[in-house]
UniProtKB/TrEMBL annotation:
InterPro entries reported in the protein's UniProt record: Cro/C1-type_HTH (IPR001387), DUF5753 (IPR043917), Lambda_DNA-bd_dom_sf (IPR010982)
UniProt lineage: Bacteria, Bacillati, Actinomycetota, Actinomycetes, Kitasatosporales
This protein's name: Helix-turn-helix
UniProt GO molecular function: DNA binding
CDD domains xref list: HTH_XRE
Species of provenance: Streptomyces aidingensis
Amino acid sequence: MIVRRIIEHREARGLSQGALARFIGYPQPYLSAIETGKRTLTDGVAEALDKHLGTHGEFVALLEMARKLLIEPGAREIVSQETKAERIRVFTSSVIPGLLQTEDYARDLFRKGLPRDSDEEIEEKVTERIRRHSRVFEKADPPFYRAVVDESALARPASSNKVMAAQLRAILSYQNQPRIKVAVLPFGARVHGMQGGSLVLLDLADGGTVALVESFRTGQAIETPRIVVEYEELFETVQSQALSAEESNALITKYLKEYADEASE
């Protein structure tokens, strides 16, 4: 859709590819790569196209729409509200939470979980995941973020020990940010109600809370207050069984050392 609209607007104005590239201030090979699908449209190019072609935000809107399509359908509604949340609460049973993932760790997950996707499609999804982190945590007034991560997410290595060590270093660095707290649910914790899945709770500025429950490649958005409360109870249960901040950091550091030592061998 985006490529077709670029070409349609360019041809309607009688512009060659080189002329349009000069017009918007980008190299012709760069625009050619976008029109042939070898590169994806960026925020800068979308804004330049809208500005110089007078398309009134069309390309910015198309780009945002394309990014939403990179997210599993059941999760789109909730993900679109992340930037509006006053607080985000997350539980994951087997992976590092999406907003805290490094590029390499996210890339590993996408490659294993989406075997039919091309390298370009995988990179688009990785880029969008990292962009979500920036949109949520790098704004002027970021939300409070509380994550409970099962120890299995730490124990299960990524494609390499180096990737996993970098991911755990990132987690520890986030722990230094005053609004981000990550607690580990140890293997010794009792059986609980969210084994095998993950949960995201968004506490919104209007006082409401919405939930996203995910399992293998599926996601269900939940807004019914009575059901949301049930999931809040489940979250509070696992949070009560999680390690303290100091204990969590110590366990993360233990795994980090093991991965780093093995990566250096």
